[in-house]
Amino acid sequence: MHNLHFLVLVVLAAVVGKVTSVEPVNRPFSVAADGPTPNLACTVGFHSLDAEYFFKTNCSEAHKIEIPVSYERRKDLGWEKKKKTIRFGTQFDNTPWPYEVNSWVCSIFPQAGTVTYDCLPENEAPAWFRKPIDGPAPGPYGRLPGCNGFVCYCNHEDYCNKVRN
User: Is 109 helix (H, G, I), strand (E, B) or coil?
Assistant: First the structure.
């Protein structure tokens, strides 16, 4: 019986010596599309202490969605008194973009205790959102692909700016 235990240990040692551990390998991840995204669909909406609105829409149709923002939030955000709503897929002043948009990005923009989810022309998004970051784990300082802090842009798939709990 002693020899049998010895033989089992020798066989186990030989097998274990052949098994190698596999370390995860980071690879670059990007949230930028390979080409234009004229039909991108995003989550658009606004989250604050006193309101929460979320819609899923094609960015070319987002300008049809407009929501009111309370006086308190407008004041916190430093808006001009005449601006009382957010119209998605438009410029900050709720006017249409002065050119035809051929490619969109989804965005997440936190400011003064609020978060705005919107569509933005790709040429208006900062260049850093396209830069790949090694992952799948967050990069340096917890950075995620397409994000700089909590401001994020993406256009690699529809609804890439989905609301996270």
Answer: strand
Nearest Cα residue to 65 out of 74, 77, 78, 56 = 56
Instruction: Kindly state the DSSP code that residue 20 receives in the 8-state scheme.
Output: -
Phi, psi of 3 (to 5 degrees): -65, -35
- Hey, is 153 helix, strand or coil? strand
67 burial level (CB within 10 Å; 0-12, 13-18, 19+): middle
136 neighbors 26 (Cβ within 8 angstroms): yes
For range 49-75, the mean pLDDT = 96
Backbone dihedral region for residue 132 (phi beyond 0: left; psi -120 to 50: alpha; all else: beta): beta
Burial class (CB in 10 A: 0-12, 13-18, 19+), 135: middle
**Sheet strand arrangement including 41-47:** 52-58, 41-47, 114-121, 104-111, 151-154, 147-148
Q: What global pTM score does this model have?
A: 0.81
